């Protein structure tokens, strides 16, 4: 399963928007996935990603699923946000 985050916008900035995105994913994209199924999170075309949005989505997905791969993370805001989550939220991916 590949999740293209740009479907939720190019600028992903608020905690409420992150919660809404996760609820949409749970309802339509990941509802039937097994815990060990691979999930690829694709950051292509995302211009801004903040820790609050990512904490609501990326951290929660990582807590539920064991096999998550992040791709196209070379944008500076994405790199910085993932580093922040690893440091403060215990993100292991």
Description:
It is a single chain. With 93 residues, this protein is an alpha/beta fold. It has one domain (2-88). The protein contains 3 helices and 5 strands. The protein is globular.
Sum this structure up briefly.
The chain has 93 residues and is α/β, with parallel strands linked by helices.
Q: What tags apply to this protein structure?
A:
93 residues; alpha/beta; 3-stranded parallel β-sheet; two-stranded parallel sheet; 5 strands; globular
Q: Would you spell out the secondary-structure blueprint of this structure?
A:
Layout: E1 2-4, E2 11-12, H1 15-29, E3 39-42, E4 48-49, H2 51-64, E5 68-71, H3 76-88
Parallel strand pairs: 1-3, 2-4, 3-5
Helix pairs in contact: 1-2, 2-3
